[in-house]
Amino acid sequence: QLPAGLYKKVLVILHDSILPYMNEPTLMIDFLTVAYGIGGAISLLALNGLFILIHQHNLEYPDFFKKLYSLLDPSIYHVKYRARFFHLADLFLSSSHLPAYLVAAFIKRLSRLALTAPPEALLMVIPFICNLFRRHPACKVLVHRPNGPEGMSEDPYIMEEEEPSESRALESSLWEIQSLQNHYHPDVAKAAAILNQSLSEIEDDISGLLELSGYELFDKEVKKKAADVPLEFEQVRGLFGKKNDIFAEHFTLD
Fold it and tell me: What distance in Å separates the CA atoms of residue 31 and residue 198, rounded to the nearest whole number?
């Protein structure tokens, strides 16, 4: 049993400062799987090391995606390690061999949690979801379902279900993203509206959006140059602004 602080310090450097220098990295399997099961930030940080063992050392982890799915909670858009998590989730969900029900469950859970996410997280997760649709066309039924959310008395998706295969995500529709099309931030509304059009085959590069902060978003808005809006077609002359105003001969608006 390690203190939480020490766990985090070890897991942050494990993937690049420890595993590459070990003769047998597989010795860390038990340590990482236990860390992955703890939950919260420790589970997020264990993802890096687990990915190396799965990808390079043939580690089999049958419940890997179920556990990854369970890590998606409201805090995922606010935690310090958000960029690291979504970078790895993007890698894990890139395989074309994943079943449609699994990817649909991730799309629905990310979309549902997005309803309470800050704008900087939304500008990252909406392109992330669009990329999932590009990789897994079978999931597009969530967008193109006949009658959409209006035709449903209630959403069949079960948010509380821990098993992705039992969540009924493929029977649902993506009404959450439709709701975000009315978001108060214009960039978020514009990003969400892209699902109303046919998606291009080229994936969006989300690497520059992973660490987008609220400060950067605010700074960008403040530095925007406002265009001069014409308020009057004819320049005002005289006291009453009429074209042939007799007062214009005797009064000015300086």
Answer: 45
Give CA separation, 17 vs 22, 26, 30, in Å.
Answer: 10, 15, 18
Asked if 46 and 36 count as a contact pair (C-beta separation under 8 A), the reply is yes
pTM over 0.85: no
- Please check whether residue 96 is in contact with residue 135, taking contact to mean a CB–CB distance below 8 angstroms: yes
**159 is written with which tokens?**
């948010």
Rounded-to-5 percentages of helix, strand, coil across the chain: 60, 0, 40
Residues in the chain: 254
DSSP codes joined into one string, 27-47: GGHHHHHHHHHH-HHHHHHHH
Mean pLDDT, contiguous 10-residue spans, the chain (254 residues): 79 83 85 80 81 79 83 85 85 84 92 91 91 90 70 80 89 90 90 87 82 82 75 63 67 66
Q: Got the DSSP string for 162-222? A: SSGGGS-GGGS--HHHHHHTT-SSHHHHHHHGGGGSPPPSSPP--TTTTT--HHHHHHHHH
